[in-house]
TrEMBL record:
Stated family: Belongs to the pseudouridine synthase TruB family. Type 1 subfamily.
Cross-referenced HAMAP family: TruB_bact (MF_01080)
EC number of this enzyme: 5.4.99.25
Name of the protein in question: tRNA pseudouridine synthase B
Catalysed conversion reaction: uridine(55) in tRNA = pseudouridine(55) in tRNA
SUPFAM superfamilies listed in its UniProt record: Pseudouridine synthase, PUA domain-like
GO molecular function, one term: RNA binding
UniProt function note: Responsible for synthesis of pseudouridine from uracil-55 in the psi GC loop of transfer RNAs.
GO biological process, alphabetically ordered: mRNA pseudouridine synthesis; tRNA pseudouridine synthesis
InterPro entries: PsdUridine_synth_cat_dom_sf, PsdUridine_synth_N, PUA-like_sf, PUA_sf, tRNA_psdUridine_synth_fam2_C, tRNA_psdUridine_synth_TruB, TruB_C
Active site (UniProt): D41 (nucleophile)
Amino acid sequence: MAPTPGLVVVDKAAGMTSHDVVARVRRLAGTRKVGHAGTLDPMATGVLVLGVDRATRLLGHLMLTEKSYDATVRLGATTTTDDAEGELVDTAPAGHLEPAGVAAAFAAQVGEIMQVPTAVSAIKIDGKRAYARVRDGEQVELKARPVTVHALEVLGQRVVDDFLDIDISMRCSSGTYVRAIARDVGETLGVGGHLTALRRTAVGPFDLARARTLEELADDFAVVAIADAARATFPGVDLSEEQAQHVRYGRALDLALPGEGEHALFAPDGEFLALYAPKGGRATPVAVFVG
C-alpha cells in the first residue's frame, strides 16, 4: 500500500540526529521518500516536522516559518560548539551577575539582528559544511546574517557552582541559532556562555501538542494529511473547477490573492493543488503538487 502523503510531527528524543529520525520514519512509512524541515542537533529535543511522499516538496516552503524554543543558557563557561556537546574553552565567575543586567542582555537580542552563526553549523562554505571544516581542523569564520527574534522571555535564573543558569523561551525566524544567542549574551556580559538544553516547542503551526514520539508513531503512525498541513501553514484559497483545471497544468490565474506571499490553492472537493503567489495582479505558480 502506498504511504499517505502528508506531514509527520515528531517529538525527537535527545541523542538522535535528525537523519536518525528520518531513517526510523522511512521504515514506519514503508517508503524512502521522507525528508525533514529544519535540523535539530542531537542534544536538542522537540518538534521535528517530516514530509512523507509528495509532501516532501512542501518542506522547503515550511522552513520559511518561525520556530519556538525553550532553552537553558549557562553563563560563565565557553565551549567550542557554543553548547554542552563541545569542549570547555574558558570559564569565568558569573554568580555575581545582577538579574536586571542579565535580562537586559537577553532583551538586546530581540528584534531584527545580525547574527554570526556558530562555527559548527550546517552552513556550506564552498560546498562543504562548516562543521565538517571545523572537524577537519580548519579555522572557520562565518559572516553575520540577518535573523529575527520575535520574542524572548527570561523565565528563571539560578546560581550553580558560580555559573549562572538562565531558562528562556523564545520565538524566532528560521535560521536563528539559539546557541549563538547564548554565546553573544555571554560575550556581552563578559563571562562567556553556552547552551545546555534546547527543546523546540513549535515549527510554524505544528507544536508539541501535535507531536508524537517515535515509540508512539510505531503504535499509531499518525500523518497530517497534505491538504490539512497546507491549510494550517498558508492562507487558503478555494477554486472553481475551471480554475482548478488551470492550476493542474501550472497556469497563472486571473485571480487577486488576499495577501502577499504563498497561498495554498484547493479544488472544490478540498484537494490541495498548489502554492501560488501574487504577481502583477495575477496568481502565479510557485509549486504545483498535482498533475
